[in-house]
Specification:
The chain crosses the membrane at residues 12-30. The chain is α+β, with helices and mostly antiparallel strands and 771 residues long. Among the domains are: 19-160, no CATH class; 464-543 and 561-591, no CATH class; 594-728. 16% of the residues lie in helices and 54% in strands. The protein has 9 helices and 36 strands. It has a 36-stranded mixed beta sheet that branches. A hairpin with a 2-residue loop joins strand 26 and strand 27. The longest helix has 41 residues, at 706-746.
Length: 771
């Protein structure tokens, strides 16, 4: 009989198919509210979470028992905060545990368009672990398949204080219970940024791996991990990262109840561009071991390389073992960190040997480091400055902060340095440096034999100021630059945007005290300089000997100067110098001329030779003075003075002149007058000796105009003779006039009066009364 034409068989087959269909669709029409209520009650009882199902909830029996839920929201335990929301959830159960033991064991979960907030707490636990536990819940989990379609969720790590956001994210885990076929695939968008704020960075993530879930041991193994993260578009201006690419490979092992990473190995290779800088980094962790209380990383290596058009920075760290409580500190007793920085301007090569402490994943502490290495730059081309320091330091990767507190030696001289840096992209430094001595002479450009001065036309090189942003203090016990010595330097430093200010600046300069400020502004094509200084009690002789190679002056100098200049070299600075200088010297001398001797000789010769002055060479002598005062007005490199006064015991000088910095010359005219209280100079009272002071600044020529003094003497003698002659002549004239007057009076006749007497008659008296 052909069974295909058997009517009873066809009717039986149709009944079976109808029954199966009814068993599959019947739950859609029966007790959907009951299913919803039972699920809500079970979730509340087992997890203390609130389940809100605004859509439908159905039970499907065929082809496998399953629950279909639409538009569901789940809160955090005992909290109204939303943990997850999904448009559709399909949970498929294992048939045998349901039939034999009346247990609902989920073997597959498929979720469409979920929104989740995943939090990893500081102790390593997650905010969803209670959903994975099998402790009497209505629904237990033994997954063979888990999928998320078009998911959107955030992952916040409290330990690292970092949040990652995902969207359009597809995650598929298949054949988890198969020891050979389990697989993981993920794809989606990843971005950094809080809700309601602009996205700082966005990228695409792709990944795959082999999944091995061992149900009996409740362990999950993810092997052959291959994950790639590539940036999409431009990042926010705060981040300034472009073309970022990360590749992550390795193997991870998890315990399932509770969900914890237990070990594995990882390697991360990254590259990108940040504000004109190309970055590459490699993190290699060959062995990861975790227990319930500790984390151990073996043979950890980190390499970071940054390179732009002209500079290259390489940092490498090698850590044999890094261990500790994974919710607290990770420590290493011995780590080596190599740092190399190279550029056309400067080079730094140092090695840190140190214990290491890592806090919260982003803060690295160096509690007791030893730093050795060297530093060179193109301004100091001969040799490298050696560094040997010990100290402690901190590195905050999240906030981009570095702090180092060091003691040791720089070029074999004692050094204490506190250096802080903010921002890896636009570094700003905070410095406090105290150095016993710095002798830069061995490192400066070589000077030709016999040369005294540097080439004044060489361009200034402000490469060190171009990117310098710093604030702090600098102290140097002794600074040596060729022949120049400056002691006890104490300055407050401010550098920003190609501008450097030392204010206040104090130092001991050739036994005197210096106080004031210095400003350099190289933000424009032509640099600007300003010096405002007060120098007290400085030894002028040693200063001029070391700087101008002249020893013509002695004394203790007080200077007040406010000078500005612009230019790219010393010659230009001299031509543009403007300002005011007030000088005062105490107890000094002018070498090369003995003005006092000249005056004394002139006085003696005047007495002996009646005005004939014999020139005497006093160039080997010197002129001592008690005080010198002068004010110079500086304009375009030429200092003009008209109030020079030099006081000494035997003389006084007055005059003025010019100091031409452009030509390097001096031109002064002075008048020397004698002290009237000095007897041996009495012959010069009322006279003055003209003096000139001319020639190269380092070797001027003194000249005393004795001829002019002679002319003054002759003129005085002639005036005195004329006055004497005039006096005699006047006396003789007066005498003659008097004689003539007397003679004339004597020879004059006596005249009789013709006028009658009109007076009243007198009364006659008696002879008796007359007697």
């Amino acid at each position: 009989m052909d069974w295909r034409h058997s009517r009873p068989l066809r009717i039986s087959f149709l009944l079976i198919v109808t029954l199966i269909a009814l068993l599959g669709i019947l739950p859609y029409f029966l007790s959907s509210d009951l299913v919803r209520d039972q699920l809500i009650m079970a979730v509340q009882r087992d997890t203390q979470r609130k389940l809100d199902i605004r859509g439908s909830a159905h039970v499907v029996l065929l082809p496998r028992p399953a629950v279909l839920i639409k538009n569901a929201t789940l809160t955090e335990p005992n909290d109204s905060t939303v943990f997850a929301h999904a448009d559709t959830i399909k949970m498929v159960f294992r048939l045998w545990p349901l039939l034999s033991e009346q247990k609902a064991v989920a073997r597959s979960i498929e979720i469409e368009r979920p929104e989740l907030t995943i939090i990893r707490h500081e102790d390593g636990s997650y905010n969803f672990e209670d959903l994975l536990q099998n402790k009497g819940q209505l629904i237990q989990v033994a997954l063979d398949r888990l999928t998320f379609s078009d998911a959107q969720f955030s992952w916040h790590d409290e330990f690292l204080n970092q949040t990652l956001n995902f969207q359009q994210f597809d995650l598929e885990m298949n054949d988890l219970t198969d020891p050979k076929k389990g697989a993981l695939d993920l794809n989606g968008e990843i971005f950094i940024g809080n809700k309601g704020e602009s996205t700082l960075w966005r990228g695409q993530i792709h990944g795959s791996g082999a999944m091995r879930y061992i149900e009996q041991e409740r362990r999950l193994h993810i092997a052959n991990i291959k994950m790639a993260i590539n940036q999409n578009g431009q990042s926010d201006d705060q981040v300034k990262i472009n073309n970022l690419a990360l590749q992550i490979t390795g193997n991870l092992n998890y315990g399932w109840d509770p969900l914890r990473l237990t070990g594995g190995d990882l390697k991360l290779v990254g590259s990108g561009r940040r504000s004109g800088q190309n970055w590459q980094t490699t993190l290699d962790i060959p062995e990861i071991k975790l227990t319930s209380t500790s984390l151990i990383l073996h043979r950890l290596k980190v390499d970071v390389e940054m390179q732009d058009k002209n500079t290259k920075f390489i940092a490498s760290a090698s850590i044999p073992t890094l261990s500790g409580a994974h919710s607290q500190l990770l420590q290493s007793n011995a780590a080596k960190i190599s740092v190399k920085y190279t550029s056309p301007e400067q080079n730094l090569d140092v090695l840190f040997s140190t214990p290491l402490i890592i806090e919260r994943g982003t803060i690295t502490r160096l509690p007791n480091y030893r730093l050795t290495g060297s530093y060179t730059n193109r301004s100091l081309p001969r040799g490298a400055v050696r560094l040997d320091l010990t100290g402690k330091g901190d590195l905050d990767l999240h906030n981009e902060l570095i702090n180092l507190d060091s003691n040791g030696t720089l070029d074999y001289e004692a050094l204490r340095a506190q250096i802080g840096m903010e921002s890896f992209l636009d570094p700003h430094f905070r410095v406090n440096i105290d150095l016993a001595k710095l002798d830069l002479t061995p490192y400066l450009p070589a000077v030709a034999a016999g040369a005294k001065n540097i080439n004044e036309k060489n361009q200034f090189d402000f490469w060190w100021l171009n990117q310098l942003s710093a604030i702090g203090s600098i102290k140097v016990g002794e600074l040596v630059l060729n022949n120049l010595h400056i002691d006890d330097i104490d300055a407050t430093l401010i550098a920003r945007k190609n501008r450097l200010v030392l204010d206040p600046l104090k130092a001991t300069l050739y036994e005197g005290q210096l106080s004031g400020r210095i400003e350099i502004n190289a933000s424009k094509d032509i640099p600007y300089f300003r010096v405002e200084q007060t120098l007290s009690n400085m030894n002028i002789n040693t200063l001029l000997t070391d700087t101008f190679d002249t020893s013509r002056f002695e004394g203790r100098s007080n200077l007040t100067l406010d000078v500005t200049a612009t230019g790219n070299n010393i010659t230009a600075l001299r031509k543009s110098a403007n300002g005011k200088i007030k000088a005062s010297l105490k107890e000094g001398a002018i070498r090369g001329i003995d003005i006092s001797g000249l005056l004394s000789a002139a006085s003696q010769q005047i007495k002996l030779m009646n005005g004939e002055i014999k020139k005497i060479d006093h160039s080997a002598g010197k002129t001592n003075f008690s005080e010198l005062n002068a004010t110079l007005i500086l304009k375009n490199g030429v200092a003009v003075n008209d109030d020079l006064i030099v006081s000494a015991d035997v003389l006084k000088l007055k005059g003025g002149g010019t100091l031409n910095l452009n030509a390097g010359t001096i031109d002064y005219a002075m008048l020397a007058s004698a002290n009237p209280k000095v007897p041996e100079l009495s012959g010069l009272l009322g006279l003055s000796l003209p003096l000139t002071f001319r020639g190269p600044l380092n070797n001027p020529v003194f000249n005393a105009d004795t001829a002019n003094l002679k002319e003054q003497i002759i003129a005085r003698q002639q005036a005195e003779a004329a006055a004497k002659t005039a006096k005699i002549q006047a006396a003789e004239a007066a005498k003659k006039a008097a004689a003539q007057a007397a003679a004339k009076k004597k020879s004059a006749p006596v005249k009789k009066s013709t006028t009658p007497n009109k007076t009243a008659p007198t009364k006659k008296t008696s002879p008796q009364k007359a007697k």
